[in-house]
Amino acid sequence: MLNAHDILETITMIQEENLDVRTITMGISLLDCCDSDIDRACARIYDKITRLAQNLVATGEQIEKEYGIPIINKRISVTPIAMILAACADKDAVKMARTLEKAAQTCGVNFIGGFSALVQKGFSAGDRELIASIPEALAVTDHVCSSVNIGSTKAGINMDAVAMMGPVVREAAERTADRDCIGCAKLVVFCNAPEDNPFMAGAFHGAGEPDCVINVGVSGPGVVRAALAKAGDCDLTAVSDLIKRTAFKITRMGQLVAQEASKRLHVPFGIVDLSLAPTPAVGDSVAHILEEMGLECCGAHGTTAALALLNDAVKKGGVMASSHVGGLSGAFIPVTEDAGMIDAARCGCLRIEKLEAMTAVCSVGLDMINIPGDTPSEVISAIIADQAAIGMINSKTTAVRVIPAIGKQVGDELSFGGLLGGGPVMPLNTWSPAKFIARGGRIPAPIQSLKN
Amino acid sequence: MRAVITVIGKDMVGILARVSTRCAEHRINVLEVTQSILQDMFAMIMMVDISGSDIPFTQFAEELSREGQEMGLSIHAMHEDIFNSMHKI
To answer: Could you give the number of structural domains in chain B?
Structure first.
């Protein structure tokens, strides 16, 4: 028999501490939709997505009601569109983006990811066209998310692609300047991108994945913070143990939802992504966990150590709770999506240099950061290069999702609404990296020994 | 299939009666009840068997939730697997 304490603990986690399943994401392979005629390819893409995902939202809602767990997002990820575009004679990538948008609307999902290209070593057919079309594609669609992988530990960093992405990010902001530059919130530049990530905006369905798969991303920063608050003054060994135990419970819930969704949709279960994903809601912040550990404000010295402990403990607790773990697994630090980070950025305690250091020890990277609208594109490329270097050398995923706030300066604010939140424009180092970025070429893959 | 009903709120006359009446109306068998009162706050946990229920479980959960709102209580009916998976290895 279950004991009353355990039952009430679960109820409290859901009702008061914002415990939820962040996303059920259906991965769909579009490799069999290739066609030399782009209209035929688009028709196949639309048919396949709407056929496989027609019950995704309804099934998610059913599970939500039966188990009493909020499932915030139902999403779709697809094969990187550049691969499909490669076969088409007419490489009109925006047409494919519109097809994805239509399919997303038909299925009722809140995002569809995979308007992507993987160019860590070089460009193949379709890659350049897709990258060039990203600003327009993100401006004319609402639900399509885009990502580009420009580096990996095994391939090094494609600096030609890095140089391309700075202007692409700027243009994506300019084209959506009337909507708080929302285009850039749907665009991620990766190093070591995972192929089974259920989280947006970086989700895509890798070429090594099955035809269709269900991946689930859990959440729960509020639960971890509440557990630490109840524990009071204990040493960091005890803090780590407590986070592990909490992460275990959160992940078990994600595993249950994943298995149930997989069974009901007749689609194999892929992975659970063990992530602490914050939301702008008060009480759902990763920064507040770090502050609960004893920092006056997120961004103070000690933040990197506290985040390293948190990130590692989340993985250790989560791994045993799920049969398959993958995706981005770790603590996210998206500034505009985290109430504590927004406050820390506003008061000037959290700066981009500290965020960069934090990305070396946690999941993903410089995420949802508003930068001044007059930032030159080569500075954006250089931010991407720095992040990719941290990921490449440390064999981890890193990413950049910055939003140039067109027409705005440090201290102004952007507001995206919903889970994307909003926050202040943060100052950048303005010394020029232009010559370095203009060199192009590739940074060779790093040596994997002599780890110093 | 078994489910857990939790009732949390201010103690008053007839809570157990109303919830169990609702279960009986829908042919839902109450297997176990525990309740406690902590500083005027009432917490009741019911384990029920819903395999003979005459309505879908989600509808039953919504009915209870509405009934809870009328009484100023928070009532949740959830599949027992959620608790088993979180608290048992």
So the answer is: 1
**How far A320 CA sits from the closest chain B CA (Å)?**
10
Instruction: For chain A, list the domains and their CATH numbers.
Output: 12-191 (3.20.70.20), 218-248+275-443 (3.20.70.20)
**B85 Cβ under 8 Å from any chain A Cβ:** yes
pLDDT tens, position by position, B25-43: 999 999 999 988 776 778 8
For chain B, what percent of residues have pLDDT higher than 90? 62
- Is the Cβ–Cβ distance between A181 and A406 less than 8 Å? yes
Strand partners, A325: A272
**Rounded Cα–Cα distance for residues A170 and A371 (Å):** 11
Cβ distance of B86 and A6 shorter than 8 Å? yes
Q: Which domain range does residue B30 map to?
A: 2-87
Q: Is A67 on the interface with B (CB under 8 A)?
A: yes
Cis peptide before A201 (omega within 30 of 0): yes
Q: What CATH code is carried by the domain that includes residue B55?
A: 3.30.70.260
The answer to whether B74 faces chain A, any CB pair under 8 Å, is yes
What are the DSSP calls for A15-32, one per residue? Answer: HHS---EEEEEEEE--GG
For chain B, say whether A66 makes contact (Cβ under 8 Å). Answer: yes
How far apart (Å, rounded) are the C-alpha atoms in residues A324 and A322?
Answer: 5
Q: What CA–CA distance (Å, rounded) separates A381 from A392?
A: 16
ipTM: 0.86
Q: To the nearest whole angstrom, how far is the Cα of B68 from the nearest Cα of chain A?
A: 15
